[in-house]
């Protein structure tokens, strides 16, 4: 089912969702059926109860507190998919409260910077599923139409390492860093469908492949995070491919592949080939403990890392269950990654082993979490849950087993 059809198909349910917004508890009257359901509910609940004070996050507090910023966007993307998958009305209300009452469906201030319109992909989902009116998409529609008409054509090389974290590097008028493909893809695909404006998708398609041609390493099947890493070697002589930086792209591929149907000249076969190439690279780089590392090409020499691992798990499950990846090859990889993810969730639902905000591989400590890590886990849990529901035989799988 396409991304658009899936959203429209939830309209009847969404129209029944009503009530006072507030901090949602995932636990419903019915007990969770599956191990993955119990864990994902705990993860979502813990994060929702820890959005007012980020003392547990050691750095980049300003970015974390920005409710319209990419950090919150990544969390709510995962929460929204989990709510859709489990048809959780309480979570729907919480998401709408954030988008409407808190953010007023607004985007960030840096008009061309993909990080600052990443929230738009949640807003478009609210509109397409009937949970919000046209006001939810106005800012995104107007901005993306403007960008597509302006067609920025700056060089994709990072122009300075000296700028502050909140300053706009010239190349970030375009998608010159791998994270941007996650931040941008879903909202561009959705607005292309909503408006019927072919120029929207034509711009997206051109810019996606411009970034890919520049950053993708055919030899490894992975993206360099940005131009600063092209040709750079790590401490062990390896190409430096950031785990989460590639996790962003692999997760974005799900949105893209779900959304291409119905768009003109969509080059779906080309996107599918890229997805399969990345998946092939993941087979070779998974650690023995089921994680992928902060630096993909040094899996046993660098820290294990949860957010990238969860993004990869999400894409792999989706790929197998949508017929793009071979089950015999990838299900053992999926099983190991599930164990890694499960073991990273504490009893209270908080996460461990999440690399903090950065732009490349760094050391990761156990006592480390962030909102985007929660979002990634909820994305992965959504696809595992669908697998559990698809046929009774799947109950033999650990994540589909009855919760403790």
Topology at a glance:
Elements: H1 3-8, H2 11-16, H3 35-48, H4 61-65, H5 70-86, H6 89-102, H7 120-128, H8 138-150, H9 179-195, H10 198-215, E1 216-217, E2 222-223, H11 243-259, H12 268-285, E3 292-293, E4 304-305, H13 306-321, H14 327-343, H15 371-390
Antiparallel strand pairs: 1-2, 3-4
Secondary-structure element string: HHHHHHHHHHEEHHEEHHH
Fraction of residues in H or I helices: 40-55%
The CATH topology of the domain at 3-106 and 215-390 is Glycosyltransferase
Q: Largest beta sheet, briefly?
A: 2 strands, antiparallel
Task: Walk me through what this model shows.
- With 404 residues, this protein is mainly alpha-helical.
- It has a domain at 3-106 and 215-390: Glycosyltransferase (Alpha/alpha barrel).
- It has 15 helices and four strands.
- The protein has helices at 3-8, 11-16, 35-48, 61-65, 70-86, 89-102, 120-128, 138-150, 179-195, 198-215, 243-259, 268-285, 306-321, 327-343, 371-390, and strands at residues 216-217, 222-223, 292-293, 304-305.
- The strands form two sheets. A two-stranded antiparallel sheet has the order 1-2. The chain has a two-stranded antiparallel ribbon with strand order 3-4.
- Strand 1 and strand 2 form a beta hairpin.
- The longest helix has 20 residues, at 371-390.
- The protein is globular, with a radius of gyration of 20 Å.
- It starts with a helix and ends in a 14-residue tail after the last helix.
Give a summary of the structure in a few sentences.
The protein has 404 residues and is mainly alpha-helical. The chain contains 15 helices and four strands.
